[in-house]
Specification:
alpha+beta; 2 domains; 6-stranded antiparallel β-sheet; 3-stranded mixed β-sheet; globular; disordered N terminus
Length: 379
């Protein structure tokens, strides 16, 4: 639940504190199944609500909005051959020789990416409809996931105190976490990575704020089983096909800041691969992106990453793969401008909330015109 408190010069601190206390008491009595609520501060000059530092919508000028509306998804784009010279790797890592793995291995047509509905992952919940028609649920879900990744059990921000965590949440910057909990457990003189198995009781739930939001918005239907926050993250994460921890989660902000642009400005494509490899021992793991559109019932581009489908699988070099080089965990960027006919701008629509692809089959980039409040990557 979000309660807006306009901050004006006539609002006394004493009255504000008393109001917050009364509202907290009312919410905890009225909604005992919801573990908390957030107070949203309204900027009186703009009327915009700020939650965790995010403006819930991206404002595009008229020309950019027209350009966004004119973009075509081009989801049947012909595969691109990296050897044609339009794009050049910016690191030595992509320089492949004739003995490197998967050189000239063609990516089968139609296998470059897949798009899923939330209803595919959570059948009989009508989650896709609620997600795309209820801004409060969509923004609340995003904020709850961010909160749990910052404050929850096993948070990667565990070295911070609560004040530092609050300050970090307030910044509009990428966040990292784990979509499935794991821990390092000592066994004899070695360590073993152990995945924490699902538990039934609420005390064992890691994603508590996310659980509360899901129950608040999906819990009125007695005929559906509402997932916990942990189940929500793990079912989406399972689309990665990952068999090895850690199970990375990232909220992606994009390249606007790195190009000295503002949110709402057009940016240059930044074509890259995240790793240029798959999991060891014959893994077939994938990237999973869940999009959060800026408005209800949105149909269009600007939410999902833009893609270049590759004709041949593009892997890291054999030398670096066998040596376990740490550079494999760094993004690999390409410079240049591919022909427009090879660029896919995937179409977001209700029933199309998730896109999945392998890192060796495509190059991807933040959209040149972003129109989303968030994009979350499970990998």
């Amino acid at each position: 639940m979000v309660i807006a408190l306009p901050l004006t010069s006539s609002t006394s601190r004493r009255r504000l504190v008393a109001t917050v206390i009364l509202l907290f008491f009312w919410v905890t009595v009225t909604f005992p199944s919801v573990e908390g609520f957030s107070v949203s501060v309204v900027n009186k000059a703009t009327g915009q609500s700020l939650q965790n530092g995010f403006i819930p919508s991206v404002v595009l000028d008229d020309d950019l909005r027209k350009e966004l509306n004119s973009q075509q998804p081009n989801e049947d784009a012909p595969p691109y051959n990296l050897h044609d010279g339009h794009l050049r790797p910016m690191t030595e890592l992509q320089q492949q020789g004739p003995n490197d793995p998967c050189v000239n291995k063609i990516v089968p047509p139609g296998n470059h990416f897949e798009i899923y509905s939330l209803d595919d992952v959570f059948p009989h919940t009508q989650m896709s409809h609620i997600f795309n028609t209820n801004t409060s649920f969509r923004n609340g879900l995003r904020d709850a996931i961010r909160h749990d990744m910052m404050f929850g059990e096993g948070s990667l921000y565990g070295s911070m105190n609560d004040e530092q965590k609050d300050a970090e949440l307030a910044l509009q910057k990428p966040m990292i976490g784990l979509w499935k909990e794991w821990r390092v457990a000592p066994i004899a003189d070695t360590t073993m990575l152990t995945v924490v198995e699902d538990q039934d009781d609420d005390n064992s739930i890691r994603m508590k704020a996310t659980t509360a939001i899901l129950r608040q918005h999906l819990g009125n239907n007695p005929f559906i089983e509402v997932p916990t926050g942990d189940e929500f993250m793990e079912r989406i994460g399972s689309l990665c096909n990952s068999t090895q921890a850690p199970f990375h989660w990232t909220e992606v902000v994009g390249v606007a800041a790195t190009q000295n642009r503002r949110m709402g400005d057009k940016t240059d494509h930044s074509w890259h691969q995240d790793y240029g490899c798959l999991e060891k021992n014959g893994g077939n793991n994938k990237h999973v992106f869940m999009g959060f559109p800026c408005q209800d019932n949105y149909h269009g581009t600007g939410v999902f990453p833009h893609l270049i489908p590759l004709k041949y699988e593009q892997w890291a070099t054999q030398k670096d793969v066998t040596a376990g080089n740490s550079n494999l965990q760094k993004p690999m960027f390409y410079e240049g401008h591919p022909p427009e006919k090879h660029i896919v701008r995937p179409w977001y629509a209700p029933g199309k909330e998730i896109i999945v692809f392998r890192d060796v089959d495509v190059l991807h980039s933040t959209p040149d015109i972003q129109f989303r409040s968030s994009i979350m990557r499970f990998g």
